[in-house]
Amino acid sequence: ALAQARGIEPELVAEGPAVPGGEVELAIVMRTKPGWHGYWLNPGDAGLPMEVEWQLPPGNSLGPLRYPVPTRLTIAGIMNYVYEDDYAILTRLKVPAGATGTVPISAKARWLACTDEICVPEQGEFALNLPIGGDSAKDVRFDEWQRALPRPLVMPAKFELSGDKLRVGIPLPREVAVEEPYFFPAADGPVDYAGKQSFRRLGDQLIAELPRRRGEPA
């Protein structure tokens, strides 16, 4: 019998061939069936992030997984940080100076795929034989996937606790318009995900007031 199709199917692709002693961008492309969704690195009130176990030849190394900005999905008052369409999680492969031929890359992964009614823990394997050198044509899809990543701040944000609120001063030049800001906390714990966030301008800062989760230390 055929195995039931998964809600999300992963595929590993490379931006181009590897260069000895250099780095190349890889993407885990998560192909999501209509009606299903996957989760950000912090899933919010429910859900699970992806777990990946890599198998690489000696001398090769991978950087951290870099997730695109998620969307918000509230079901029965529970806030989830999700992807409801295809998405790509990026990482950078560092290749040793003496590398020749191909770099065999494989991984075992676990992720959670959900609809509004059910959640299914899924797992699978994906692999790629990455050529060393050769045609240097780039996969143009990586331009779009990189644009979907969060952009780093030029300066660090400032934090302040005030009663049941967490204030975050986000450096953002006053000429940069922000229509509907939302603060996605990457770490689980201090923020009440389903609570109301408020924002105001203070010169070249955007001040976010975030409701703290009950039970957090003062």
Condensed summary:
This protein has 218 residues and is mainly β. The chain contains one helix and 14 strands, in the order ββββββββββαββββ.
Description:
This protein is mainly β. The chain contains one helix and 14 strands. The longest helix has 7 residues, at 141-147. The chain starts with 7 loop residues before the first strand and ends in a 7-residue tail after the last strand.
Structural class by secondary-structure content: mainly beta
The portion of residues forming beta strands comes to over 45%
Helical content, roughly?
under 10%
Largest sheet: 4 strands, antiparallel
Mean pLDDT: 90
Extract low-pLDDT stretches.
none
Q: Whole-number radius of gyration?
A: 20 Å
Order of helices and strands: EEEEEEEEEEHEEEE
Number of strands: 14
Overall, the morphology is globular
Count of DSSP helices? 1
Cross-sheet strand order for the largest sheet: 1-2-8-5
Distance linking N and C termini: 56 Å
